[in-house]
Specification:
Helix content is about 25%, strand content about 25%. The protein has 6 helices and 11 strands. The chain starts with 5 loop residues before the first helix and ends in an 11-residue tail after the last strand.
């Protein structure tokens, strides 16, 4: 049986390894400690790994990035076959599924990503543009500046808690895990009514 990340993992290991189903065990491949016995385990289907000697753990993106000396966003981009549009770059960099971003109305705007801000009734109240490298600007068509991101989702949240984070991508990430969140575009601009 071929596992999802079997080739990506095996091609980066120089040492002997043993396999039991999807689990592959070998000496720690990172070279950060002297490993006398196999203490590193990685799942070839999920890509999750852990070294029981040094404590290093992570996912397939971190594993490949560490082994290849690159960044996780590039690995995510490559493994998931994304193109080079701003939205696809944003998706890869933040490791947020493209389908989730599209469901939220995030889209391309020339060489930037366009992130819509809606009020409680899902009326568009602002649009923020994110460029590459990281830069932000508000579209000038709107009067409201720095509104909280995610107001339209408040009606769907439980009454007992909400997580407040800085920025859209942190908010989108939590939404991907079904965690109720509201984003503040800039940490020093927390609206008084939220405090």
């Amino acid at each position: 049986m071929d596992y999802k990340y079997e080739n990506d993992i095996k091609s980066r290991l120089n040492d002997k390894y043993s396999e039991r189903g999807a689990e592959l065990t070998c000496k720690c491949p990172f070279g950060t400690h002297k490993d006398e016995h196999p203490s590193f385990s990685i799942n070839m289907e999920s890509g999750a790994y852990h070294c029981f000697s040094c404590g290093e753990s992570g996912n397939i993106y971190k594993f490949i990035a560490t082994m290849d000396g690159t960044d996780t966003a590039s690995v995510y981009h490559k493994l998931n076959g994304y193109g080079d549009s701003p939205l696809e770059k944003y998706s890869a960099e933040k490791q947020i599924p493209l389908v989730l971003l599209k469901d939220l109305g995030v889209d391309n705007c020339y060489d930037k990503v366009k992130i819509p801000y809606y009020d409680e009734n899902k009326e568009l109240i602002a649009t923020r543009l994110r460029g590459f490298p990281k830069s932000f600007q508000w579209k000038k068509d709107f009067k409201e500046k720095n509104p909280p991101y995610g107001l339209w989702k408040l009606k769907d949240y439980p009454d007992d808690y909400i997580v407040i984070v800085e920025g859209e991508s942190d908010t989108q990430t939590l939404w991907g895990y079904q965690i109720p969140a509201l984003g503040i575009p800039r940490s020093n601009k927390l609206p008084k009514e939220i405090c």
